[in-house]
Amino acid sequence: MEKHVIWRGILAGALAGVFAFVWSKIFIEPIVGRAVDFENGATAAHEALESHGAGSGHGHSHGDVELFTRAVQSTVGMGLGVLAFSVAMGALFAVVFCVVYSRTSNVTARTLSVLVAAAMLISLWVVPALKYPPTPPGTSLDDTIKERTLLYLLMVGLSALLMVAAVYLGNQLAPKLGAWNATLAAAGGYIVAVAVVMLVLPTVDDTPGPVKDDAGTIVFPGFPAVDLYEFRLYALGTQVIIWTTIGIVGAALLSRLLDLQREDQLTSCPVPSG
């Protein structure tokens, strides 16, 4: 059964990747293009200041050649990246679904699929993004980008572990408190634990400000706050599309698969004679 579930999860992830690519191409790619222009402008401003400080005859010339053009990056590159991520998340969703489904008996496959997708969206993206929100490519400081990446991955791991612990706690409390009260208690425990983790982990502000000369005069403005806000909003939209599609498509495919399997098991059972 596990292989069939995983293949259906991959299929749901692939379909989610198609929808997410269309969304990203329409809404996120223009902001990425402006972020690339900002990075090039900020680099040129820094080089101009260094050249001016070192003397007019000592300018820097960088002959960096892009391996892929912006047109390729914004179409094929983005498409493959979003598709690969979505397929990987679909496979991970299927694995988590298999583990949870084998340990539950009072939840249908359709309902469980939606719940698993929602829990993964919250724990793997929404919560980590509240502490370390995404930034457009080329707008992070070189001095802090590695530290921020490691802290973000740590936040993802801790959030996922705390979500697993919350689900376990809810199952343990359900016989005593009832399903609804146990769910509320588990959710409250998850929120409190996540809040503590966010307070403990350091905050990293790696959005570059304006480029200034020695006199403090702004020679190149900082990255626009509107673009940063819209990028984060549309990035959230991308994740919602991915996990909503995985949850809904997974619910349809897995419900049909598991219902058929259950019917086969019932028909294969011998009917006792009276």
Q: Would you count the extended β strands for me?
A: 2
Helical fraction equals: over 70%
**Spatial arrangement of strands, main beta sheet:** 1-2
Tell me the strand percentage band.
under 5%
Q: Structural class from helices and strands?
A: mainly alpha
Low-confidence stretches: 56-63
- Using only C-alpha atoms, the radius of gyration works out to 24 Å
Describe this structure in words.
There is one protein chain. The protein is an all-alpha fold. It has two domains: 2-57 and 66-139 and 221-266, no CATH class; 140-206. 76% of the residues lie in helices and 2% in strands. It is built from six helices and two strands. It has helices at residues 2-54, 70-101, 109-131, 145-177, 179-200, 225-268, and strands spanning 211-212, 218-220. It has a two-stranded antiparallel sheet. A hairpin with a 5-residue loop joins strand 1 (211-212) and strand 2. Helix 1 (2-54) packs antiparallel against helix 2 and helix 2 packs parallel to helix 6 (225-268). The radius of gyration is 24 Å and the shape is flat. The two termini are 34 Å apart.
Helices and strands in order, then pairings?
Layout: H1 2-54, H2 70-101, H3 109-131, H4 145-177, H5 179-200, E1 211-212, E2 218-220, H6 225-268
Antiparallel strand pairs: 1-2
